[in-house]
What we know:
mainly alpha, Fumarase C, Chain B, domain 1, 2 domains, 23 helices
Amino acid sequence: MNTIKEVVLNGHNLRLDEAVAIARGNADHQGNRIYPVVSLDPQAQTILKEFRDGLEERIAAGDVIYGVNTGCGAKKGTIIPTKDINDYQAHYIPAHCVGFGDPFPEEVVRLAMILRVNSFALGHSGVRLEICEKLLELYNKGVIPFVPKQGSVGASGDLCPLAHMSATMLAIPGQKAYLEGELMEAAKALSLAGIEPETLKAKEAMGLTNGSTFTLAIGLLALHDSRNLLEYSHFAAALSLEAIRGEKAAFDPRIHQARKNPYSVDVAKIILDLTENSQRMTGESQSVCLSAEKKIKKYSDAEHTKPTPRVQDAYSFRGYPQVAGPTVKNLEYASEVLIAEMNAATDNPLVFKIETEGQPDKFEALSGGNFHGEPLAQAVAVLALGIQSLANISDRRFYALTMPATSYGLPDDLAGPINSDLNTGFMILQYTTAALVSENKILCHPAVVDSIPTSANQEDYVSMGIIGARNLREVISNTYGVIAAELLAAAQAISLTEEELSAAGCSQLGDKTALIYKNIRKVVPAMLEDRYIYSDFQKIYNYLLEHNPNDLLSGR
């Protein structure tokens, strides 16, 4: 993977991988996080100056411009005298700093600062170049504002969180910030980092706070994590199929082409590719009656050697493409919305240039609703629904692995053979996945269906998008946990049956599932008797978070 060392912003082509690097950095050899240096493209600097000059022309001409020489929200009719416009900025930011609860993770705040600058780079916000440079200086010198999670309704942008972000560069008393992981007064953090506090001028308080920027920051990181999670889900499904010696017929392309859903066609193809050349997923392997299955049969000794007829596997195995396919579509939709928003003007009002041949350029400020979080709110809700289905079906496969009757003879609860009568095995780990899945069902209630009017009904329809984004972040974390548990359980099942199937000459895994299994075993060994399973669970979970899916196939 190439390390991104520098990002140059112009408002048009910031990429998702750059956004993730800005938020999370890259680990050096000592495990420290190294973040790319972020700067403004020279042409963007020129555009910023040009549009700022154009806005100031309109102010001098006496145009009435919302949030510039008027109050905000329900006070839109209050005209602010020109001599008081700059003072208004000093009132605006602290009055909007009303957040509640725990702070956002630093990665979210770090990315939000840069997303705001990238939006400003288009020029339409009319802020000065100095504002962009100050936010970049905070980022590049590691001053990260303390921003409470709660307080935004996702309408006029994430007003409250963005105000806390802005209060840091203004060194407003009471505002705090992190520097090298230590929380302190913002003024102290700026001083230690060698940064002079900024003073806002006309339009800049409004520009800094109008935009669903924190919702977007959370959504972009969730998008990146969801893409990886989807691949890990495919790995888990394939490995569990290997564990139960599953049927390949359910993944025949003819079945999925008949449904005419291209996403399910693709998922089925992926499963067949992962399990290619598997000896476990064959009639020969399925004809082996494993020891655990013999124990539950109540027939004569002759019948003990006959396996349970296969016909077809449970829904959670054979129906995986039909369940994961829609998630792929949901992810595609969310990607389209979030990537577009990453390079968009989301402020209000917006400044536009009017070009007339043979005449000097003129500028106009227009009020609208680009700050509204509804597009993002719907996108994160749809993505959460798709991701939770991956967790739901994963938990069902895990549950099936724990019972000989549904796993075609795997040991009870996947318990190890040493002191087998004393072992609990993976029984309680499945309780954990059940709890995580149940929590996801509550978190997936779409926050976007709710709206509580604000600002004397001037802002009468809000998106609650940031609530949905925060919930999505939890859903993804929970789903990583469920998928990690299934990978651990499927690997355990394969380890416990390797000897019997090897004796029958049919233990070989698919070419790629063999790599997945091998690399899981590098992280944790098979559990031959009960041990502190939390450690194993966390190791796999952390591996998934800290690596990408290709690493699990290559062993990096």
